[in-house]
Amino acid sequence: MRNEFCKAMVELAARERYFFLTGDLGFMALEPLERALGARFINAGVAEQNMVSVAAGMARVGGKSWVYSIAPFCYARPFEQIRNDICLNQLPVRLVGNGGGYAYGPMGATHHALEDYGVLLTLPGMRAYIPAFAADVEPMVRAIAERAAPSYLRLGRSELDDESTLPPYAPWRRLQDGAGGVIVAVGPIAGQLLRALRAQTPAARAALWVVSELGANASAAAPPAELLEALADAPALGVVEEHVAQGGFGQQFVHTLALSNRRVPALVHAHARGYPSGRYGSQSWHRQECGLDVPTILERVAARAAARD
Questions:
Q1: How would you label 215-253 residue by residue, b for 16+ Cβ within 10 Å and e otherwise?
Q2: Three-state SS at 255
Q3: 288 Cβ partners below 8 Å, 6+ apart?
Q4: Cα Dmax for the chain
Q5: Residues 219-277: tens digit of each pLDDT
Q6: Left if phi > 0, otherwise alpha if psi is -120 to 50, otherwise beta: which for 67?
Q7: DSSP label at 222?
Q8: Fewer C-beta within 10 Å: the chain N or C terminus?
Q9: What is the CA radius of gyration of the chain?
């Protein structure tokens, strides 16, 4: 997705003037953007707090600014500056974190972003964009560029080899029909879920939805009527996110359903659980340790659906 991001930002540079600040990262990936922006591509060094404050200052005087780093360095190190300088002043600074969830694998907890959008969505005006597929990045960049408010883009790696049959980008999308419950996924793991569900029979598989824009009330847009209708009689609901449960999409989504007096089916919430064994490994290893791997998710949803029947 980083390559798609670079391409989209180069295209944006042909349409509008903006500044791009990086925390000494993006080598062997963002050079085309550096060439397109020239002096407006700024390496702020390993000084994330200063980088965010500078970007806020640019926005304060009418400049357009984007801030880039790996995800934990983008939101955790400069959190005070994001809160005080950007969000309390409602400035349209665009934060971009590469490698959400366990993406940086064996580099360990310091390089993982397990609570990023949950933390940032506590701040006024913030909206989070989590692409599930490489094709999502370009429309997200356009939407973020047009939004006059704080934004956070969480990049990962697409986990679907063939994206040609995907529906057009939207904050909520139904990717697969099915009668065995409903799964709502956040982020690239939706690609693996889609491949696995396609291999099942329609009667056995769950329907799959993906949500890609999050705000203070579970999403940046209300859940679509088709999803709410499906949940009214679904035997089970699976919510999948590579993020801790506290403050995550799952909690916000169920809260939204409850406040609108909607039925919440038998629930499976597959989420990051930190480090149960105290060890580090690849992204897939961490997912499996947390029960966030696709076979475990589908097995749990099927079991909950069968128990309801």
A1: beebbbeebbeebeebbeebbbbbbbbbbbbebbbbbbb
A2: helix
A3: 296
A4: 63
A5: 567 899 999 999 999 999 999 999 999 999 999 999 999 999 999 999 999 999 999 99
A6: beta
A7: P
A8: C
A9: 19
